[in-house]
Amino acid sequence: MHVFTASGVFWGFLALIAAAHQDWRTMFAWLALALFVDGIDGTIARKINVVEAAPRWSGTALDLIIDYLTYVIVPAYALYSSGILGDASNPLNLISMAVILLSSAMYFADNEMKTEDAWFKGFPAVWNLIIFYYFLLSPAQPTTASMVTIFVVTLGLGLLTFASFVFVHPLRVSKLRVPTLTLLVIWSLLAMTAIWENMSPAPLVVWGLCIVGLYFLILGYFRTAPTHDRPPQ
């Protein structure tokens, strides 16, 4: 089970190689595979009780190492080198890298990153998904307006890392579980379509990705306090 989890670092490395060659479709494909592994490994590990079966290795530590590569390093490098935020010397580009890398490092070191019912406290440093949307929505030729918009969004998400706002874990949500998982499947299919189309899919796919993404973004507003393990009222 731990080896399966560790495979994510290899998919992340392949994604980094693709990013170095500016092969964005291949990069996102490898990141998607890493995301799939990360999405299911925890559920399987809990089912087989891997903590007791292999106590020498920490699945949590392993997961954080891999996530920092696949969620932060590779996406940050892709954003930095793609030209979406201008060339390498553009202050907006450099500041964005600092925001992404530093806020994510602090987030992964946070011992209270999750609520008791497995929601994320603050923005959970899923920059692989955010950069996916940057590539999807950015104009072919970056403009001053697009670069400023991306910079402001990046800065805002970096600040949300330390906020009390919560973000859903799609596979561990209890309330609205059926619609959430259904939309997760729809989003995955649309995302694979966008990747296959080299991040230039039909407008219907773009709209679908944006609508479903908005659902996951605002779902935290509708979260109520955990109902399990609560003392009698």
Describe this structure in words.
Strands 1-2 form a two-stranded antiparallel ribbon. The protein has helices at 2-20, 24-48, 50-53, 59-82, 91-108, 127-137, 144-160, 177-196, 203-218; strands at 120-121, 166-167. The model is unreliable at 225-233 (pLDDT under 50). The chain has nine helices and two strands, in the order αααααβααβαα. The protein has 233 residues and is mostly helical.
Which overall shape is indicated by the principal axes computed on the Cα atoms? globular
What's the story with the biggest beta sheet? Answer: 2 strands, antiparallel
How far from one another are the termini? 41 Å
* Contiguous helical run count: 9
Question: Average pLDDT across residues?
Answer: 87
How many distinct beta strands? 2
What is the H/E order? Answer: HHHHHEHHEHH
The proportion of strand residues reads under 5%
Radius of gyration, in angstroms, nearest whole number: 18 Å
The class by helix and strand makeup works out as mainly alpha
Low-confidence stretches: 225-233
The helical percent reads 55-70%
Question: Could you list some keywords that capture this structure?
Answer:
9 helices, 233 residues, two-stranded antiparallel sheet, 2 strands, mainly alpha
